[in-house]
Amino acid sequence: MSPRLFSPAGVLYAVVSLQIITAGTLASPAERALGRSLDRHKRYSTGGLYTGPFFDPTSPNNITTQLGTHAYLPCKVKQLGNKSVSWIRKRDAHILTVDHYTFIADERFQSFLVEGTETWTLQVKYVQARDQGEYECQVSTEPKMSHFVTLNVVVPKIEIMGASDIYVKTGSTVNLKCVITQSLEEPAYIFWYHDGERVLNYKPGTKDIRVERSGTDTTVGTLVLYGATREDSGNYTCSPSNLDSASVLLHVLNGEHPAAMQRGKNSASPIPGRWWGHMSVGLGLRSLLSARQTCAAVVLLTALHNLLAFAGL
Fold first, then answer.
1. For residue 252, with 0-12 CB atoms within 10 Å meaning exposed, 13-18 middle and 19 or more buried, which class applies?
2. Which of 125, 135, 207, 284 could covalently link to 108 via disulfide, CB atoms 3.0 to 4.6 Å apart?
3. What does the alpha-carbon distance between residue 230 and residue 256 come to, in Å, rounded to a whole number?
4. Strand pairing of 101-102 and 54-55?
């Protein structure tokens, strides 16, 4: 039936009739046009101003944050009235929050309203790489209104300059530089660990730890070892706050050559040449000494070899 608009009663009849018909699929073009006109009448006041909820066009669509920091995704809704605001993670359609209520076990997510700003903000604490993606801010109108925000996660690169194995002589000054690039923020701290124990620079003149910012996206943490000793050998790990770590192996040599040291580690022969020479001498004495005396001589020669090797001779 075509709507009639000749009297107030006719207007009322047209409205009621439209609500019934548009619920199905048989609305005529005239009825659909009348529905749009009435919808505009509902959403705008007589002065032409928008009276229903709508998203502030200045709300950002992209937010970039660094791995391990906190991210804040704003959604500014004007004239919200009694409607609810939900945040939905698009990749799995998981409802994260509705107003102040959280509907995910991950406690890193929460939504809050800053009074006077009309902005519902989704907070993501300690951002992980998998948090990157699109998030939907949805208002409970009919039909639903949605504003999408893309979260970009920047993952800094961490490395200790130089080779993974560092060889130095006893008494040398060692500089280990941990370089963090592509970082939006300087880490709150950079800890150094030696064989799993944190390195502290409590003794001036023996160790020094420095942190400096270089450019807009690079931080350099330096560990200095003065007068390195054999005890300083081992694994050194650079561990910035909320980021991955990087490690190197430091070898403090007492006169040995690095290549010779590596061959000694990887040698298939269980008896080094010098040790075998002493053992051969001991075995040669067997013709002159008893078995017990020969064994004692071999043990003595072996102990002497180990003492000389420790002294670097």
1. buried
2. 125
3. 12
4. unpaired
Question: Which residues in 277-293 are b (16+ Cβ under 10 Å) and which e?
Answer: ebbeebeeeeeeeeeee
| Residues 6+ away with beta carbon under 8 Å from 195 | 234, 235
Render pLDDT for 166-180 as a digit per residue (tens, 0 to 9): 999 999 999 999 999
State residue 194 phi and psi, 5-degree precision: -115, 110
pLDDT, one tens digit per residue, over 107-155 is: 999 999 988 899 999 999 999 999 999 999 999 999 999 999 999 999 9
In this structure, what token pair is assigned to residue 88?
A: 């939905």
The terminus-to-terminus CA distance of the chain in angstroms comes to 111
- Secondary structure E strands in the chain: 54-55, 62-66, 71-78, 85-89, 94-98, 101-102, 109-114, 119-124, 133-139, 145-154, 157-160, 165-169, 174-181, 190-194, 197-198, 207-214, 218-225, 234-240, 246-253
Residues 6+ away with beta carbon under 8 Å from 139: 53, 55, 77, 80, 83, 84, 85, 145, 146
Fold annotation for 51-154: Immunoglobulin-like (2.60.40)
Q: Which of 61, 131, 53 is nearest to 96 (CA)?
A: 131
Q: What is the value of pTM for the model shown?
A: 0.59
Please, are residues 237 and 246 in contact by the beta-carbon 8 Å criterion?
Answer: yes
Q: In CATH, which superfamily holds the domain spanning 157-253?
A: Immunoglobulins (2.60.40.10)
Query: What 3-state class would DSSP assign to 99?
Result: coil
Give dist(CA 199, CA 242) in Å, integer: 18
CA distance to 33, 114, 223, 305, per residue, from 277 (Å) = 106, 82, 43, 10
